[in-house]
Amino acid sequence: MLNELIRKTIREMVGGGSGPPVAFLTPQGDRGLFGPESIAWRVHADFISMMIGGISSLVLQALHPQALAGVWDHSSFRKDLKGRLGRTAYFIAATTYGSHQMAHEIIEKVNRIHQHIHGSDEFGKPYIATDPRLLAWVHLTETLSFLEAYQNYRYPKLTRQEQDQYFKEMKALGEMLGAQNLPDTLKGTQEAIESYLPELHYGERAQSIIQLLDDFPSNIQSKPFVKLINKAGFINLPSWAHTKLKKPVPSTLEKILVNKGIDLIAIPIRDALKDGVAAHSLRRVYG
Question: How far apart are CA 94 and CA 24, in angstroms?
């Protein structure tokens, strides 16, 4: 009963369907882009840390005027936040756990969409969604946010070598989407992100996105869960981001309380989702 309630709440949050992920069961033996031994399989299997990292990455991406402009002008994000999260969740699932065909189809679909996205940002500066530098910003902020959330909320933590391996794996995916010369280590990713700092801006558009996340649409049952995930997502941000957002850096006590809350709710959530996409994909690979 509790497990089904949790699954229903999560589906409601991301606008997902109700059925099991049977599409990930075929074709038998297909290892997909990464394979079960990859760090990407391990990191992306933990729904709760992925949700936290997802919030962090949305906040960071909103700070880049040109990256935000593409979403602002050509997406239903502001009216359909759940739909955006659901599509992002499916993309990650398909490219991480799907068959080669499933992964390549969704990558090609995204690349086709990007070809038609262009315009001017809030300062009148032109942008195109196929710009490798903008694609790299999105990729870098997502991968670092996912990795940091995993390291904060999943045990045992990844070793430094395993963290570097994660970025090496994800580099291949990012470059399939049009980014170029991506770093393949944790340090390289952190340095690459910091190179964008002079380009970032916390203006009215970014503020509206932050407000949208703060007011995430949810029913009474899921509201406490959503609030906690959102809080953890902001705590998961790098320290410089809090300065950009004109918010205080979270205190040690605040971090401890949120971490305890996440650890508590993570137990039933992980149990409820143990037969999810990753488990189905393992059956596809090994039978």
Answer: 8
The residues, any chain, with a CB within 8 Å of residue 107's CB and separated by 6 or more, are 95, 173, 176, 177
Task: Specify the pTM.
Answer: 0.93
The one-letter code for the residue type at 50 is: M
Q: Which tens digit of pLDDT belongs to each residue from 215-258?
A: 887 777 778 888 999 999 999 999 999 999 999 999 999 999 99
For range 185-204, the mean pLDDT: 98
Count Cα neighbours of 179 within 13 Å in the Cβ-side half-sphere: 21
Instruction: For 42-54, give the secondary structure using H, E and C.
Output: HHHCCHHHHHHHH
Furthest-apart CA atoms within the chain: distance in Å: 54
Q: How far apart are CA 173 and CA 92, in angstroms?
A: 10
Q: Please, are residues 154 and 49 in contact by the beta-carbon 8 Å criterion?
A: yes
Question: How far is residue 14 from each of residues 17, 82, 110, 222, 255, measured CA to CA in Å?
Answer: 9, 5, 19, 12, 25
3-state secondary structure 72-111: HHHCCCCCCHHHHHHHHHHHHHHHHHCCHHHHHHHHHHHH
Percent helix, strand, coil in the chain (nearest 5)? 65, 0, 30
Q: To which H or E segment does residue 32 belong?
A: none
DSSP assignments along 195-217, one per residue: TTGGG----HHHHHHHHHHHT--
Looking at residue 130, its amino acid is: T
Q: What is the pLDDT of residues 90-100, one digit of tens each?
A: 999 999 999 99
Is 136 in a helix, a strand, or coil? helix
Handedness of CA 246, 254, 163, 109 (dihedral sign): negative
* 8 A C-beta contact, residue 63 and residue 69: no
